[in-house]
């Protein structure tokens, strides 16, 4: 009898952490991609429902570079060349140490990040930086905003034509850009996940810590943001990820309960 033992789980992981929707397997096919711990599942969105297609191991909006915040005070940049191949990575020092979230902004001529951070007095702010690939350093960005909701913890970059960023707090939601600042009070909650509904970024689904699902609407006149509205939709499993599928169907992935198509 061998003294060595080999241990393996009998079931594949079911804990859903991330999801997204897009045309992956074909330009004519709409797919739901689900991350479950050590695996990625690819499903086809069909009239009959979700059809599993692939189950594989896990291996700036304009695809100019990859940005990684791996350590406090350090931002790693991995650029792409014109053929989509990875170039040599480099590090940039990041002044903000208590970083809560980092996202790339849409609609910028140069790769630009927005940083949500907390200072030594526990106040929360956002700041933008352009990534200079030539100088391998940050350049002060086009705008910033100080003294946000003390519970602000999540950034949602808004795509063109509106651009800018949504800042999700525990008591307020803010839209901020170089030209606009709009805020709306909300019922105290901790938003755990979001999913974009429309390609223009005017509507978002928000899932909170209690399993409540809300619809956030950015009201606008052409490219000018005029305000924010929020509407309660119902109750789901506590969401880890939300992806709008099509025809008013939504995938709610959960680490705390059953994932749902809603």
Automatic annotation (TrEMBL):
Gene3D superfamilies: YVTN repeat-like/Quinoprotein amine dehydrogenase. It comes from the Eukaryota. Residues 57-261 form the RSE1/DDB1/CPSF1 first beta-propeller domain. InterPro entries: Beta-prop_RSE1/DDB1/CPSF1_1st, RSE1/DDB1/CFT1, WD40/YVTN_repeat-like_dom_sf. It holds the Pfam family Beta-prop_RSE1_1st. PANTHER family: DNA REPAIR/RNA PROCESSING CPSF FAMILY. This is RSE1/DDB1/CPSF1 first beta-propeller domain-containing protein. It comes from Rubroshorea leprosula.
């Amino acid at each position: 009898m061998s003294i060595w033992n080999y241990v393996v789980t009998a079931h594949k992981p079911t804990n859903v952490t991330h999801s997204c929707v897009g045309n992956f397997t074909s330009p004519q096919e709409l797919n739901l991609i689900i991350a479950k711990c050590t695996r990625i599942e690819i499903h086809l969105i069909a009239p009959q429902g979700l059809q599993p297609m692939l189950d594989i191991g896990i291996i700036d909006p304009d695809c100019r570079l990859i940005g990684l915040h791996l350590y406090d005070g350090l931002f790693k940049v991995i650029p792409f060349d014109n053929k989509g191949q990875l170039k040599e990575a480099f590090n940039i020092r990041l002044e903000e140490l208590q970083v809560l979230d980092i996202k790339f902004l849409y609609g910028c001529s140069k790769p630009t990040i927005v940083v949500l951070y907390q200072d030594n007095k526990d106040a929360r702010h956002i700041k933008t930086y352009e990534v200079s690939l030539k100088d391998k350093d940050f350049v002060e960005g086009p705008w910033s905003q100080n003294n946000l909701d003390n519970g602000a913890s999540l950034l949602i970059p808004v795509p063109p034509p509106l651009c800018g960023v949504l800042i999700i707090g525990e008591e307020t939601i803010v839209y901020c850009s170089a030209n606009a600042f709009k805020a709306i009070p909300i019922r105290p909650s901790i938003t755990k996940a979001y999913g974009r509904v429309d390609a223009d970024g005017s509507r978002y689904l928000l899932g909170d810590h209690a399993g409540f699902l809300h619809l956030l609407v950015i009201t606008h006149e052409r490219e000018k943001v005029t305000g924010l509205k929020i509407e309660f939709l119902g109750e789901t499993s506590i969401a880890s990820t939300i992806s709008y599928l099509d025809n008013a169907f939504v995938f709610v992935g959960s680490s705390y309960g059953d994932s749902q198509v809603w």
